[in-house]
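User: ok so my PI wants both of these folded by tonight, can you help

Assistant: No problem, let's get them done. Here's the first:
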Amino acid sequence: MIEHLLSSSDLDLETATLVLDTAAEMAAVSGREVKKLPTLRGRTVVNLFYEDSTRTRISFEAAAKRLSADVINFAAKGSSVSKGESLKDTALTLQAMGADAVVIRHPASGAPHRLAGWIDGSVVNAGDGTHEHPTQALLDAYTMRSRLGRLEGLRVALVGDVLHSRVARSNVWLLRTLGAEVTLVAPPTLLPVGVDSWPVQVSYDLDSVLPKLDVVMMLRVQRERMNASFFPSVREYSRRYGLDAARMGALPEHAIVMHPGPMIRGMEISPEVADSTRSTIVEQVANGVSVRMAVLYLMLGGMA
């Protein structure tokens, strides 16, 4: 039973593998003509989003509905939050309404951890500031295992804006737990302070690492979180850290290309790479529903 999912580091090897195996069972259900299961009938899942989101919010909504849960979508814009209501008072309101699980996205790192202390229900971190996004890491790991057959020993590079990426942080911790080897590739200005203490290798040269990889994951350049110049120009960034057809050709034949989305075509990744057979970008979105079904199932009823 999973009580909360706040960080990838909360998951040991056994639990992470259980989520991935359960997601595979959910994917089989999603392939049926009738996609719904009655598992969470009578349960209420609240999507509490303080930041804009398309993929993650809709993915959690689809996951909960396929498990027959009641879903409440709560957007900060147009709610009492815009009038100054605190996260704690919002949490107490949700508690009074009988929320069994709250899926929260918030611009402040640590907000899901605070929420978990205020309500009786389960809390899923759907992205908090630049901290973590654990279900994204789980769906990425699921996609790698589906395509390549294993996670143990895989050589994975996370490329680009590591500094502002909660996806990168969650992937680092989860992939290490699952036995993969992780390399961060970025300009020095886009690496976090203290990265030398992370269980990763670091490179500033994308071309030098490509021939050794099983997976290359391009990260979104999060310009909305940047209040200074972190690289000279878009053109210079793309020249040094963008994945184009020539660079894709340097990868081993079996290697796959990933991106958590939304992607900036032509900057982080070229259209021909994004749309190639090596790309798993569309699969990642589909797999996200199965993985989030697995998380909700294991939290709210699967192990009861």
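One down. Here's the second:
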Amino acid sequence: MANLIFSFNTVAPVFLLVAIGWLARKTSLVNEPFVDAASKLNFRTGLPALLFLNIYQAKAADFFDWKFVGLMASGCLFFALILCLTVPRIVKDKSKASAIIHTVFKPNVIVLGFPLMIMAFGEEHSAAISMLMPVLIPVNNIVAVLILCAMDPENDDAKTHPLKKAFASVMKNPIILAAIAAILLQQLGVPLPGFLTKLLASLSNMATPFALITLGAQMTMSSVLSDRKYVVSATILKVLVTPLFIVPLAWFFGFRGYELATAFLVSASPSAVNCYMLAREMRSDEVLTGEIILSSTFCSMFVIFIGIFVLKTLAIVS
């Protein structure tokens, strides 16, 4: 019951922040130009700061199991490849197809997966997910940018080669640059000045709430009704199919205990909140992206609760 309560307490603020954004837009407290400017500001400051600090300040694990890290990263990327090969054949609209692919393969490890792992099993058993974060988060963000660039409708312009445009976007993307900088500084042991750490902490604290409020300001009932089939399909893929693919794969390669629990929590986590910011910035369908984030967040609460119950019942974790 404690895990269910924790999951609810984690998810409820998400919906309330989105509701604030939706009400602000409905009451004309904010308008479209403001939302555009706020989204761009957060994309270039808050979210990069959040990612940078989560990677830079990640606790060193007692051991670094490259086999486990490699399995999780390659499993997520292989699933993304399957989606890239299948979804565009079914969903002809490139912006909607990229939104589905992006949200299905990219988990919300920072906001939900990591704290839930600590809540459920304690900090002493968080080594597996701690060593995943500095690798999985930047890899997923880089792949997400590549996918969104490759499926950008403007790439139909023959003057711009999709791969060149994707590479240029990756090199200029503030989230990617923040991840690379954090990894380099962490590995080189470079300390950050106190004032810079406080600045980044202040920016990172506003990132998720700001992203959710601007997400809510973009929500419309007509889009919810028209995109219902895509939202349902993407949610099922995210919170059910993904863990059914990743967890048996981890079991097959011999991982048990808290590593298997980590594989489950990462794969069953809902779509990452910054999917919305990337979609909005890179001409994917940001409204559909936001709907999938909300739906997968709500549904994952129940899936994760059931999964933790099964793991403990089968004595896979203590």
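The mean pLDDT is 80. The two ends are 16 Å apart (CA to CA). Good luck tonight!
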